[in-house]
Fold this protein.
Amino acid sequence: MTLVSLALLGAYFAGGMNFMMANEGWDAADSFYFWCMTVSTVGYGDLAPTTPKTQAFVSVYAIVGLVLVWSIVSDYYGVVQGKLQDFQAKLLSTIGIELVDVHALPIDKHTPDQVNAKVKYWRRYLLALLPMFTLLSLFVALHFVRKESSFTEAVYFGVITATTVGFGDFGFLEETPQNKCLAALGVMGVVVVFANAVDEVLLIRKRQQLRHGKIALPSLEQLEALINGKRNAGEGDYISEADYVVETLLKGDLVDPQILLAIRRSFYWKAKAASNGKRNSLITSEDLAALWKEKNLGQCSPR
């Protein structure tokens, strides 16, 4: 988290807190708690704006917060989650549960089937979910101890919080100001780690399906159609690795087509920098030299 990001985060919460303190009469702890519950989308409902003025403000400010706060906080908690995951991976390795580094398996020496035989996906799913279960367990345990609720109620509250359902039958409004603020930060952490864990599980699942050929990989018919298209366009009677990768990404919906088009357009204009306007499938050292020359001329030109 950079100083600029930290300053933006502080300015957002300070602005929102000051407005609610001035217009709702809340103290600083309640105001901070309210905005944490709002931008985390949990929204227990134990605090809510009560006037048209504050309701209108929250309607706009909450949208700003969802974009600004999550773009910053999710990265920060993601780093924490990654470090926790690394630590847990080392712990698992001590009991013989280790992940296979597929980058250490040379492409020319290991077939897709051989890689699939080596990769134990249950280990990857376990490692992806461990940070979530760790933080969720701590959250549940603290609620169980501090609220003197039953274990079932504590688990229920933890899950309802992590999934951002937030029915409102439990909350932290009656806690001391310090505990209320700590709980608010904890809620944001649980929500972010839960969302990251779900994303990672879905990504692992997609990798698993791709490696087993269940999604994305072009069929022989599609490869034949691709070759025919290139032949008819006078671009050769072959499929390059780049052609195969692009076809797989598009077929499996693994990349946004507009992003891919932007990348290909960028490559095209860099690859023809020194080729007299002719299309080139490679960026050569001559192209790179021409690009540097163009950039240096641009910097030296009068403004």
